[in-house]
Amino acid sequence: MNTSLPDLFSRFSTLRVLVIGDVMLDAYVWGRVERISPEAPVPVVTVNRREVRLGGAGNVLLNVQALGAEAIICSVVGTDLAGDQLHQQLIERGLNCDGLIRSASRITTIKERIIAGSQQVVRVDTETDKYITHAERTQLIATAKSLIPSCQVVIFEDYDKGVLSHEAIAEITAFANQQNVPTVVDPKKRHFLDYEHTTLFKPNLKELKEGLKVDFNVDEPGELAHIVAQLQSRMSVLGTLITLSERGVFIDLNGEQVQLPAHVRKIADVSGAGDTVISIAACCVALRQSPQRIAGLSNLGGGLVCESVGVVPIDKTRLFEEAVRLGI
Questions:
Q1: Quick count: other Cβ atoms within 10 Å of Cβ 129?
Q2: Taking all residues of the chain, what is their mean pLDDT, rounded to a whole number?
Q3: Which residue, 130, 200, 199, is CA-closest to 165?
Q4: What domains can be seen in the chain, in order of their start residue?
Q5: Plot region of 221 (φ>0 → left; ψ -120 to 50 → alpha; else → beta)
């Protein structure tokens, strides 16, 4: 049963949300190009400033926090300088680090963008996709289990960087189900079919096709619903939320199917929209909202953040005002 929008937005602040997965640093180097290197035919970027931000699952934490809920990270990062910077970013933003595990045998993922003027010149990724060790996986599972009973929803934020594995997903999901804590999933390719018995599974259209190794015409009535029904039967998930980019979203949950068109907006940057969608969806699932409300608010929030350049968390006030205007 849906609550009123004012009550729903107020109740977001009562939630504790556990985000399990791959947290990383987004690094930016801004500068200008005035010459070509004499060493190779590449531009020389003279640096003006540098900045680091939370990336990966970190952006989900920031979106959950922006909604007013307490966001708790459960992940494994290195004991390197990037890990120190990531930890400091979490602290500076008032995020709960109780589930952050530091590993001397692992590097922290950094995605560094070199930008000259408004043009990205190159991106440099420092990362590994190797699985965390058995001991670290055991610690991750134990940490998640210690935090889940005090949380109202779990988000699996999977970027295929090795923190999540079949074993960890299965054991954490089973425990969350025992505790009656819903699980919401943002999957990637490697573990796409491993999220059995979760509450709400949220791939985008490309991930759905690749994960199931199927192709279909999303514009043909009934084809998407048929594929989603196959997915839910195969994985025994309670519900599915498919993001369809310019086509909007499709949800199948509790026997109800809803497809909503995208809101017409001036798109500046689609980066991070999926993180906003899953954050809003998870908080709505935790508060037992209807499929129509879950899809409607998530779709609206994903569109709103696309109006800003760069990865930014949702503006709760604007989301509320737009939701009231649209009668969501």
A1: 12
A2: 93
A3: 130
A4: 5-24+55-107+128-326 (3.40.1190.20)
A5: beta
Question: Quick check: is 129 catalytic?
Answer: no
Q: What are the tens digits of pLDDT across the range 148-173?
A: 999 999 999 999 999 999 999 999 99
The string of pLDDT tens digits covering residues 29-84 is 999 999 999 999 999 999 999 999 999 999 999 999 999 999 999 999 999 999 99
- Looking at the DSSP bridge assignments, the partners of residue 33 are 45
Where do we find the tokens 């509450």?
199
Q: How many CB atoms within 10 Å of residue 104? A: 8
**For the chain, what is the radius of gyration of the CA atoms?**
20
Among the listed residues 296, 288, 295, 292, the one whose alpha carbon sits nearest the alpha carbon of residue 326 = 296
Among candidate residues 7, 160, 275, 315, the one labeled active-site is 275
Task: Give the span between the Cα atoms of 276 and 185, in whole angstroms.
Answer: 13
| Alpha carbon distances (Å) from 258 to 40, 225, 238, 273, 292 | 54, 10, 15, 20, 6
Tokens of 313: 């968390």
SS3 assignment for the chain? CCCCHHHHHHHHHHCEEEEEECEEEEEEEEEEEEEECCCCCCEEEEEEEEEEEEEEHHHHHHHHHHCCCEEEEEEEEECCHHHHHHHHHHHHCCCEEEEEEEECCCCCCEEEEEEECCEEEEEEEECCCCCCCHHHHHHHHHHHHHHHHHCCEEEEECCCCCCCCHHHHHHHHHHHHHCCCCEEEECCCCCHHHCCCCCEECCEHHHHHHHHCCCCCCCCCCHHHHHHHHHHHHHCCCEEEEECHHHCEEEEECCEEEEECCCCCCCCCCCCHHHHHHHHHHHHHHCCCCHHHHHHHHHHHHHHHCCCCCCCCCCHHHHHHHHHHHCC
Which pair of tokens denotes residue 85?
Answer: 């910077």
